[in-house]
Amino acid sequence: MVLMVLFGLMSPQLMGKLLRMLERDLKQMKAGKLDMKAIEKLASIGCRGQYPNNCWADLKKILPEPKLPKLFRLELPLVHNVMGRFTHSVPMLLPHMLFGALWNHYPEKFTEILLGSRTCCKKFWAAVKDSPQFLAHKVGTVPGFEENCIPLKIHGDGTPVTGLGKGWGKLVDIFSVSSMLVTGNTMLRSLMIFMMFQHLICRDDDHHTMDTVFSMFIWSFKACWTGRNPVEDWNGKKMDYYEGIGEYFCGGYFFCVWSLIQDLEHGCKVYDMPNPTSNACCPLCPVGRQPGCKWYDFRPDAEWMKHMYDQMAWLAQGHPCL
C-alpha cells in the first residue's frame, strides 16, 4: 500500500483511512466477530482479480437489491445548437417518493439524515418562531408542527463535468434536497434529485425546460407538505391506479421547504433573480432602483437596509420563480 502512495496511485489520506479500518477489522477478528465469509465473497470478485472487467458486475450480484424508488422519467422540452428544439425523457428522483421509501424501508437512515430527533425539530421551530419568515408561513397553523414538520433546504449549483478547464467544457445544474435538522457527512445527507446539462436548457415561453422541471418539483413538494401520497398527478388529473393514494407516507411527519441555497449566478439563471453584475442586483431590496439605494453602500445605516422586502412586498415585485 505504501508503494501505491509512492507511485501516485493512492493518496496518503486514503492509505491512512484504509489502515485505520484494517486496524478495527483486526480487533474484531481477534474478538471472533469478523464476518470472514463476507470478506471472502468480496475478495473473489473478478475471479480474484484475474478478470478486472468483471469486478463491477460481480459486486452488483453480491449487493442487496435497493428498496429506493425508481427514477421518474419526465419528458422535458430541450434545445440543442444543431438539433434545435426537441423533447427527451430525463430522470429525476421525486422527494416525496424518496422520503416515503426511507421511512418504510430504512427507518434508521430516515432518522439519521432527515429527522435527527423530535427534540431537534422542537429546537429548530423554537429558534425561528419570531422570524418574519415564520410569521408569514402557514406552518405555524398546522397542529403538531413543532414535532412533526421537517424543514428542508434545496441546494442548486452548476458544476463542470466534461472538458474541465477547456473551451468545449460542459456544465450541469444539480439540484439536491436535505434536512435542516441534522449535521454530518454531506454525501449521505444531501440527496440529489435532478441534474441537467446547462447547454440543453431552453427558455422559450412555449418550450421552457425549467418551467416543466419546477412543475414536477412543486407537485412533489406539495405532497411533502401534506405528508400524504398525492391524489392528483402533476397535470391535475385524478390518480386512482396505485395503492396508498392519499395515505401518510412518513407516518405523520411532513416537510416544508424553508430555504433555497445557491450562488448568485445560479439564482439568476435558474430562478430568474436579478443579474448579480447589474446595478439593480439584489432580489431582497430595491437597491439600484430607488434613489439613494446604492449596492456599494455597506454602512450600518445604509439606505437599502430600510427598504428590505417583506414577503408581500417581495411577491409584489413579480419574481418569476414563484
What does this structure look like?
This protein has 322 residues and is an alpha+beta fold. It has three domains: 25-63, no CATH class; 72-271, no CATH class; 276-322, no CATH class. The chain has helices at 2-6, 12-30, 36-43, 45-49, 55-62, 95-105, 107-115, 118-128, 132-135, 145-148, 186-189, 209-226, 264-271, 311-316, and strands at 72-80, 84-92, 149-162, 170-179, 191-197, 203-204, 207-208, 254-261. The strands form three sheets. A four-stranded mixed sheet has the order 5-4-3-8. A two-stranded antiparallel ribbon has the order 1-2. Strands 6-7 form a two-stranded antiparallel ribbon. β6 and β7 form a beta hairpin. α6 packs across α7 (107-115) and α6 (95-105) packs parallel to α12 (209-226). The chain is globular and about 75 Å long. The N and C termini lie far apart (54 Å).
Offer a few descriptive terms.
14 helices; single chain; two-stranded antiparallel sheet; alpha+beta; 322 residues
Helices and strands in order, then pairings?
Elements (H helix, E strand, L loop, with lengths): L1 H5 L5 H19 L5 H8 L1 H5 L5 H8 L9 E9 L3 E9 L2 H11 L1 H9 L2 H11 L3 H4 L9 H4 E14 L7 E10 L6 H4 L1 E7 L5 E2 L2 E2 H18 L27 E8 L2 H8 L39 H6 L6
Strand order of the largest sheet: 5-4-3-8
Give the distance, in angstroms, between the N- and C-terminal Cα atoms.
Answer: 54 Å
Q: Say what oligomer this is.
A: single chain
| Radius of gyration, taken over Cα atoms and rounded to an integer in Å | 24 Å
Count the DSSP helices. 14
Into which percent range does the helicity of residues fall? 25-40%
Strand content: 15-25%
How much is the average pLDDT? 90
Largest sheet: 4 strands, mixed
What spatial form do the alpha-carbon principal axes imply? globular
Helix and strand run:
HHHHHEEHHHHHEEHEEEHEHH
